Amino acid sequence: MRDYALFGDDTRFASTPAVLRCAEFGADEDVVQPLERHHSGLAALRAFLSDLNIAILAGFPIGSELDVTEMLTRPGMQVRLDGHGASHGPATPPRRIAELGLAYGQLSSICAESYAPFFGWVDAEVAATSATQ
């Protein structure tokens, strides 16, 4: 975050429900850190830890193991309040996480019928890392 007022009662953000603010203002680099900052940080960490991989289980559309550019054009990844999250509270699509995550590891949908493929990937990565140490 660059502007922590996003989480408060600041009048600039008051017309947007608090649960939608990060999604609504996620492209405003006066409010949030640019994604490039996170890419640079992860790239530096990966240079230090060459076997670094990131596994992200989040509210991506099912079948999200696709090209991030294609995924971000899907209707399910447009900024809006997601009624599917109603039993656990409102949700918005994790666009910034998707933009960052595909470059560094595995994405999978929390809505998938089975997490077996996702955790199979995690298990294989941990096994491969353990075998090289």
Topology:
Elements: H1 21-25, H2 35-48, E1 54-58, H3 68-73, H4 95-101, E2 105-109, H5 116-132
Parallel strand pairs: 1-2
The CA-CA distance between the termini, in Å, is 36 Å
**What overall form do the CA principal axes indicate?**
globular
Helix count equals: 5
Largest sheet: 2 strands, parallel
The computed structural class is mainly alpha
Task: Write down the secondary-structure element order.
Answer: HHEHHEH
Mean pLDDT figure: 79
Radius of gyration: 17 Å
If strands are numbered along the chain, what order do they take across the biggest sheet?
1-2
Percent of residues in beta strands: 5-15%
Estimate the helix proportion, in percent: 25-40%
How many extended strands? 2
Runs in which pLDDT lies below 50 for 5 or more consecutive residues are none
Q: What does this protein structure show overall?
A:
By secondary structure, the chain is mainly alpha-helical. The chain has a domain at 51-132. The protein is built from five helices and two strands; from the N terminus they run H-H-E-H-H-E-H. The chain has helices spanning 21-25, 35-48, 68-73, 95-101, 116-132; strands spanning 54-58, 105-109. Strands 1-2 form a two-stranded parallel ribbon. The longest helix has 17 residues, at 116-132. It starts with 20 loop residues before the first helix and ends with a helix. The model has no long low-confidence stretch (mean pLDDT 79).
